[in-house]
Amino acid sequence: MKTRAEVAHTPQSTSSLDVVIFEHPQGCRSFLINDKASGQTLALDVHLDLVDEIAAQVRSHRWTLPYVVDTHTHADHPSGSAALAALHSSTRIAHERAGHSGVARHPKDGDVLHLGDQAVTVHHCPGHTPDHIVLGTSAGLFAGDTLLIGGVARTDFLGGDAGELFDSIHRLLASYPEETVLYPSHDYNGQTSSTLARELESNPWLAITDRAEFVSSLTANPPPRPANMEALLRLNKEGASIPTEIEAAEAIERVREGGAGSILDVRTGVEYQSERIEGSVLIPLDQLASRADEVKAIPAPRLLLCRSGSRAEMALETLTRLGLSGLSVVRGGLESYLKAGGETERSGEHISLERQVRIAAGALVVIVTILGFGVHAVFFVIAGLIGLGQVVAGLTNWCGLGLTLARMPWNQRGPVETKQGSVGTCAANAPASCAANAP
Ligand SMILES: [Fe+2]
Questions:
Q1: How far is the CA of 417 from the centre of ligand 1 (A)?
Q2: Would the pTM count as exceeding 0.90?
Q3: Which end of the chain has fewer surrounding CB within 10 Å, N or C?
């Protein structure tokens, strides 16, 4: 699978450390920081979708991975730290105020980690969250969600504090030279690094030197909260895993909490246009492989939805094969969702793909049976094969007739793409992000 993350691998050669940057379509950045001499490597802010890719990178270079670090408790995406650390027997690291299950080491402000002879200094930088740490290295400053490129992190959830963020950022600016490279863990405009000098010159938040003014600007208009925030916190703090299937009632709860943008509807465009969950994202089943990056951009945990659940299970298999994770099938699909009291928006009637399969299979059997009586007995065999095909489809959940019908012109109408609902991230100046709004 060709992803933006693979394209964005950028080993930097400015120090004794290599920095490999992994871009996630959701605006997240994960990093590998490698000591060239020893091969010892630290993974930082690993997104669950990127675990396989990052593990492959470590293996291909024959590096070792002693440390897997989270700069803070992520509220906008699932952390892949536990999964990656398990693959490489790494020590997981986070600040003690994070309270993450499975984290073995909690460095204090000023503590130093070692990659070979290279020092990685841990700075406790509360503000975005109380548990936030920043890593200082000879390659640059890995700022997590403190100072972003052209922005700063938001502070309106998880115990954030705008005044503490101001103090943390200015302490870092006073401690590192202006030419220091800045690697934030989020960017919503496709950038991966900056320098402190460039930020001092152009970041509007750094132009505010009065703490009280910074606090009032930052807290004035908080962006929408991240989608699925409560579910993500359970995953990232308690180590809960994402189930492969959830009940329709839980999907309704997620939608009511503002998580409709995490529902991936894999029916045909016509079915979607006829009836849909408002804010859900349409990517038909037969287009998933070519649009995997669009799936990644949907905030996890993602819910896979179809009419009855069968196509969503096929979608789960397809996407898992492509290396995506954080996916749950809504059991019973839209039918169960409606029965459980879920609301949809409708605009016209349409025969669902399941009904089309029943009609087509039945009609074919009738036609070839007639041909068997009137033309040649071989058509009875064909009728039997059609019946056998339906039995196999029922047993394996893979229906060739359904996939063929989905490609028919009458099923291709409908919206080409859907507008994703409010998703919420960590920036203050990106729509619903971890960043703050521009001052
Ligand atoms: Fe964040």
A1: 28
A2: no
A3: N
